[in-house]
């Protein structure tokens, strides 16, 4: 066994969203708005540093193009700057794993010139031609896939894109696990062998560990309910520690872990 794998959550932004996103569909009585972080995850201790997700392109696009609520960015949340604070230059990132291609997960791919970009093939196909109802008032007619991100992935970044189909080990102790038709058609979770058990980076498959994993109540956004329920059951069985993308508790709980 080599060095221990360590997961470092990094916040890159903040958005005000409906709390209902955490809880099963319209049966929720929840009407509140909650401020959530936009996390990315640096993994150290493998042969090379890896990053899981990379935040959004710019908050203005989320508000103006996607027609979503308030989004905020601060200079101190700049991803490259924070990586440097953790002793990692963007050039050193050799793998950038994208849990899915929603705008707040794949907006900064271009700042990692040496990274292979790991994406599920299904996710890219569906992101390029999303099942977006024209009349939907949010999502920019693309269901939260920013057309500019997808265009860049299939053009400028294409040489470095690695499409995978299903479950795959990326480096020793770090695996991508496909959960089809859960949060998105090709969402993947990242399983990391950490001291004490398996840590799972969830993307947005689950948003709230208590509700979605412990209580097994699906979150508000999913493609197929049966797939989502099977996904949440498997995650609960497989994982010891859970890292959703949009929960400040992750930052507090796992800081310095
Ligand atoms: Zn998402």
Number of strands: 12
Structural class: alpha/beta
Portion of residues in helices? 10-25%
* Gross morphology: globular
The end-to-end span amounts to 19 Å
Contiguous low-pLDDT stretches (5 residues minimum) are: none
Describe this structure in words.
It contains 7 helices and 12 strands. The protein is α/β, with parallel strands linked by helices and 257 residues long. A hairpin with a 2-residue loop joins strand 10 and strand 11. The relative contact order is 0.17. Zinc ion (ZN) binds next to loops.
Short account of what is shown:
21% of the residues lie in helices and 27% in strands.
Descriptive keywords:
seven-stranded mixed beta sheet, single chain, 257 residues, binds zinc ion, 7 helices, 21% helix, alpha/beta, globular
Write the layout of secondary structure elements.
Layout (H helix, E strand, L loop, with lengths): L5 E13 L14 E12 L5 E3 L6 H6 L6 E2 L6 H7 L9 E3 L18 E5 H8 L18 H7 L7 E4 L3 E4 L2 E7 L5 E9 L2 E5 L7 H6 L10 H14 L2 E3 L4 H7 L3
Parallel strand pairs: 3-5, 5-6, 6-7, 11-12
Antiparallel strand pairs: 1-2, 1-4, 2-3, 8-9, 9-10, 10-11
The structure holds zinc ion.
The site of zinc ion (ZN) has 4 residues, from loops.
């Amino acid at each position: 066994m080599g060095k221990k794998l360590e997961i470092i959550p990094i916040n890159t932004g903040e958005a005000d969203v409906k709390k209902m996103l955490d809880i099963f569909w319209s049966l929720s009585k929840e009407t509140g708005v909650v401020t959530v972080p936009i996390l990315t995850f640096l993994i150290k201790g493998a042969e090379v540093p890896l990053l899981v997700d990379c935040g959004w392109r710019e908050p203005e696009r989320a508000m103006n193009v996607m027609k979503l609520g308030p989004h905020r960015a601060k200079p101190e949340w700049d991803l490259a700057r924070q990586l440097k604070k953790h002793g990692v230059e963007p050039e050193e990132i050799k793998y950038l794993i994208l849990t899915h291609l929603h705008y707040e997960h794949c907006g900064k791919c271009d700042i990692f010139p040496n990274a292979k970009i790991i994406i599920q093939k299904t996710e890219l196909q569906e992101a390029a031609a999303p099942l977006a109802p024209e009349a939907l008032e949010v999502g920019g007619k693309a269901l939260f896939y920013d057309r500019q991100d997808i265009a860049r992935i299939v053009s400028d970044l294409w040489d470095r894109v690695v499409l995978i189909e299903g479950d795959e080990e990326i480096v020793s102790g770090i695996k991508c696990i496909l959960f089809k038709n859960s949060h998105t058609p090709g969402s993947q979770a990242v399983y990391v062998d950490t001291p004490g058990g398996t840590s799972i980076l969830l993307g947005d498959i689950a948003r709230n560990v208590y509700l979605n994993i412990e209580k097994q109540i699906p979150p508000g956004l999913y493609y197929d309910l049966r797939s989502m329920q099977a996904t949440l059951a498997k995650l609960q069985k497989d994982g010891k520690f859970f890292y959703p993308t949009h929960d400040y508790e992750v930052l507090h709980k796992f800081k310095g872990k």
